[in-house]
Structures are given as structure tokens and as C-alpha cells.
Amino acid sequence: MTKTVAIIYYNRYCYSSILAEHIGKGVEKQGANAVTYDIAHAGNSMISLNEADAIIFGSPTYFGSVAAEVKGFMDATVDIWNNKQWNNKVAAGFTHSSALSGDKLATLMTMFVFAAQHGMIWAGLDLRSCEKVKDYGLELNQPGSWIGLMAQSPKDGEKKPSDLETAEYFGTRIAKVTQKVGYYE
Description:
Layout: E1 4-9, H1 15-29, E2 33-38, H2 42-51, E3 54-60, H3 68-75, H4 78-82, E4 90-97, H5 104-117, E5 121-122, E6 131-132, E7 139-140, E8 149-152, H6 161-181
Parallel strand pairs: 1-2, 1-3, 3-4, 4-5, 4-8
Antiparallel strand pairs: 6-7
Helix pairs in contact: 1-6
């Protein structure tokens, strides 16, 4: 049975959508279905999120936390929480900021706590900082994050190829974890 990985993110200046696209490529490379949603349209996607085997949350880091729109989405899941609809689903997260550090860890921790409160199974990134991986041309995970995907937002539209390759690898990893863990009600 083919697994479905939903990627829901907030996108103000389009880098979240670019990362989500590359994560989705990695998911599909592993043989799972990737479905992406912008949080602006989250109300229409809640049923699909409930049916997904895994959910990857994405937000830019603003002032050391998730964007207000992401927090609003989280707060709107109280009925899902009450009914344990995401219990035992695989969860993961990604973020980016213009600064190399930008306090991105705090953003990923917010997503992690949110997923834990929903009873989800968190999957992080399994790469050492600047690790060379077969089939990828660049050193991946340059920020050195294990809890989730961190990337540096491009300045002047310049994308960081290592971040994009890390995003694809991350999608492949989450799909693999989802296929191994499965979903148990």
C-alpha cells in the first residue's frame, strides 16, 4: 500500500514552497505520494491531513518561532487533538531564516511539541553536519540540525543548492520512516 506524506507550510516569500517542492521530490523518489498545502488554504485540507500517513510541517523562523499563521493553524487543530485523529502518525518539520542561525531550533521545537501533543511520532534528520551522501553532489545538512530540516533563506533570490538537496534527502528519509513505522490507530 502506497503511503501519503502531506507537507503543509506557510509561505510568505516563496522559499517555504521551494523547500516543500524539494521535500516532495524526495518523498516521491522513495515511492510514496507527496501532497503539499499552503497553510493559507489549510481549512480545505484538514480532511486530507487526517488521511495522510505522515505530516511534515514547515514555517519560516520569525523572531525565534513559527510564523503567526502557523501558530493559528496549530490552534485550529483542537478538534483533531480532542479526537486523537493524528495519534501515531509520523511527523517532521522544516524551517528557514535569512540568518545562518536565526534561532531555527526554537521553531523546530515548537513544531515538535505540537506534534507530541497530538501523539505523533517525530522523525528528524539523520545526517551529520556537512555529510557527503551517495547520489547527492554536495555536503548536506550544513546547519547541523538533527531535529528537522533547517535552511538559510536566499538573499536576492539566490538559492543554496546544498539546502535544496538536503530537503530532497529529508523527504526521502521521512517517506522511509513512514513506510517502516506505518500508521496504527
